[in-house]
Structures are given as C-alpha cells and as structure tokens.
Amino acid sequence: MEIRRTANAGVLLTLDDVEILLDGVCREVKPYLATPQSEKEKLSRRWPDAVAFTHAHEDHFDEAYALAYARATGREVVRQKVSVGQVTVTPVPTRHMGHWGLTTAHQSFVIQGSQSVWFLGDASPTELKKLADFPKPDVLMVPYPYVSTSASLKMVEALHPCKIVLLHMPLPENDPDRIWQSVAEGMEYLKMYLYVPELGETLQF
Fold this sequence. Notes:
By secondary structure, this protein is an alpha/beta fold. It contains four helices and twelve strands; from the N terminus they run E-E-E-H-E-H-E-E-E-E-E-H-E-H-E-E. The strands form two sheets. It has a seven-stranded mixed beta sheet with strand order 5-6-7-8-9-10-11, with no helix packed on it. A five-stranded mixed beta sheet has the order 4-3-2-1-12, with no helix packed on it. The radius of gyration is 16 Å and the shape is globular.
C-alpha cells in the first residue's frame, strides 16, 4: 500500500495496483494549503482509477478537477459503492464535525482490498460507530481532532488500527489556531503508529 499526501486533507491511495484519490485536490483555505500545482499536473497526466470527495468544502474539494476528471475519463466521482479490480470503495454517510454537521452533506469511505483503509474526511469521531460492521482498518486516515482529546483518542485506540495517518494539518510555522500544540500529547501517545505526512510525501505500508 502506498499513500501520497496530495492535499490539505487528502491523499492518493494505491492499493493492489488501484489508484484512488480521496479529497486529494483542494483549494487554499487559510491556514490550510491548496494542492500544489505540480501535484495537480501529476493527477491530470495520469488520472486515478477512482476519485472520491467526502464533502464540498474547498479545503477538501476542487470542483474544476472533479469536472475535468469526469470529462477525461467518462467516470463520475464516487457516490455509491464501486469496485475497481480487487478493490472496493464504499461511501458511508457520516456527520461533519461541529456546526457544519447541520448543513453539510458528508460521507466517509471504506476501501477494501488486500488491506482495509478507513478515510474519515471531516466526520465527527463519534461517527466511527457507523463503520463498525466493516473490517477493522489496517490504516485509519483522520483529521487532527481525532488525536486532540482523550475521548477521541479512546475511540481511535479501540479500533486497534495498525497505522494512523493524520491529515488536515497546517504548516507548523503557519498555525494561528495552535493545532500542533493541541495534538502534541495525542501524537506522543500514539507515536508508535501515527504518521503525519507533509504535502507531497509518500508513505509505504
């Protein structure tokens, strides 16, 4: 399995030779960075096998890329369960964290092949229970609030994931909300299996 962080809260996942882009192209919403132009070009020269977005907020979604992908490939972004090769991508309706949960349509994704990946997007940590019937994740991809409180840490730890990839992190030097400070204790607690990739960085599991 290979995971390349291509966006603020998104990745290009390669599992069993299938490429799946998850929230992988976004615009800048300060302090969160846009997908670098170099990454956009890579993702347009070789279109992924499937593209999925959890919701339409600009720090997770780029409408122009979604439309270009559909025009070039004849495939729409994932809205229902799809299979590509031996890999399945299953959307699960989940509630966005905070007050956005009242107004924002949101879905998380379970990707299953030789390994299981849960991609939560901006789902509230309490929404983990909606995925309870799926195989436990080998890799759990979540935004920073999942490691910022003891309650959310307990929910994450109960899953016993092999690896956790923490997304939705600003640059440490441009962090007006002190997100890095708020997750420091949780990151230390989970350090044996927690990864925080930089934009453009590739992880191999």
